[in-house]
Amino acid sequence: MRASRHAQPGHKGPTLATLHMVEAVLRKQERPLSLNRVKELLPRKVMHPILRDAIEHYKRLGCVAEGSKGVMWVLNEDLGFWKRIARWERR
Predict the structure, then answer these.
(1) Considering the entire predicted model, what is its pTM?
(2) What pLDDT score does 2 carry?
(3) Is 80 in a helix, a strand, or coil?
(4) What CATH code is carried by the domain that includes residue 71?
């Protein structure tokens, strides 16, 4: 069984600044972006493994979806949406 990259000693994940940059780029887009396109739009260079870790972080939180066409910010911030969700019947 192969160990994950996160378990390797010395592996550093994305900094908070990197997470903010990635979030800002993805929030502005209305269509999926390839990781290479995300890297082009970032204000400073980010290594591919660090970008991949940032995307995985946001995927775990449910903020980003990834498919065959790329990654896209999907978190809905409309308060009306969340109020309607809160009224849904619990299963």
Answers:
(1) 0.74
(2) 43
(3) helix
(4) 1.10.10.10
